[in-house]
TrEMBL record:
It comes from Paenibacillus piri. GO terms for molecular function: nucleic acid binding. Pfam families: CvfB_1st (PF21191), CvfB_2nd (PF21543), S1_2 (PF13509), WHD_CvfB (PF17783). Belongs to the CvfB family. This is RNA-binding protein. InterPro entries: CvfB_fam, CvfB_S1_2nd, CvfB_S1_3rd, CvfB_S1_st, CvfB_WH, NA-bd_OB-fold, S1_domain, WH-like_DNA-bd_sf.
């Protein structure tokens, strides 16, 4: 049996070599089990379970510590450091960190994980056989997730980003202790901003699909969101000279999104509510506060 990094195997303690540690073997190949990697007391001849990895000198080595992930497994690992040239490093429970290279991360810098984020990854080998993280996709995550129950409709859940795109963000919704959770998608129109790989965000489940996955939104339900959006528009108007702003029903959707962080449809609903309540009126391509709602300078 060829010894491979990333696997837990039972090996026999062949000899002790001070001041380094013990050499463990499968009868064909020996690897060093450093004194600092020993848990409890062992003796020559004992059979011990170890995890294999490459040390800082690129030598296959062993540890009796239990990793958070093993070869071929999927795990959610925390980002503990970011290197400007190589990528980010993940905590894997061994006192040494696992590299998630830039090639496994989004091209857009704003979408890359930051320290404290947690990323779904698969433990893999690089070309030299060293351990490296690969970003997990739906193919790896779906078998570990469950189908959303009907009771999740309109429920608020925490979700973790596993694939950030500009057209939408793919997430795993927290399912508590049952598997990894539920696969979900936040369409760009339902985001209030771009989301990073590994970022956690609270969303509202808007639709449960036939395949058991869900659609989610960072926006409040329309009857709640309309009030929040209306207040946002009023705040802008109150801060403007003469209580007027160059935005109206005619304003392009991309301008509305950039200025108010809401969709064009939500903007029109909020404006309609304010006009119905007699708080604002439109003139041409401008929206104005009614005189009694304006500033004292008007």
């Amino acid at each position: 049996m060829r010894l491979e990094a990333g696997k837990r195997v039972a090996l026999q303690v062949a000899k002790e070599v001070s001041p380094n540690g013990y050499f463990v073997t499968n009868g064909v190949q020996e690897v060093l089990l450093h004194y600092s990697e020993v848990i409890g007391e062992i003796e020559v001849g004992d059979r011990v379970e170890v995890f294999l990895y490459y040390d800082t000198e690129d030598r296959l080595a062993a540890t009796m510590r239990k990793p958070l992930i093993e070869l071929g497994e999927v795990a959610l690992l925390e980002v503990v450091d970011v290197h400007p040239r190589f990528g980010c490093f993940l905590e894997m429970g061994l006192g040494r960190n696992l590299l998630l290279p830039f090639k496994e991360q989004p091209d857009l810098k704003e979408l890359r994980p930051q320290v404290g984020d947690k990323v779904f990854v698969v433990l893999n080998h690089d070309r030299q056989g060293r351990l490296v993280a690969k970003t997990a996709g739906e193919a790896e995550l779906k078998p570990l997730c469950f189908d959303a129950p009907a009771s999740w409709k309109n429920k608020k859940v925490l979700a973790r980003v596993y694939k950030p795109l500009q057209m939408g963000t793919f997430v795993v919704c927290d399912g508590g202790i049952v598997g990894f959770g539920v696969i979900g998608l936040i369409h760009d129109a339902d985001r209030t901003r771009l989301l990073r790989l590994g970022e956690e965000v609270e969303i509202r489940i808007t639709f449960i699909r036939e395949d058991g996955n869900v659609n989610g939104s960072m926006r409040a339900a329309k009857h709640i969101g309309r009030d929040e959006d209306s207040e946002r528009i009023l705040a802008v108007l109150r801060d403007r000279p003469n209580g007027a702003m160059p935005y109206s029903d005619e304003t392009p959707a991309d301008v509305v999104s950039q200025r108010f962080q809401i969709s064009k449809a939500a903007f029109k609903r909020a404006l309609g509510k304010l006009m119905k309540e007699g708080l604002v009126y439109q003139k041409g391509s401008w929206t104005h506060l009614k005189q009694e709602q304006g500033s004292s300078e008007e």
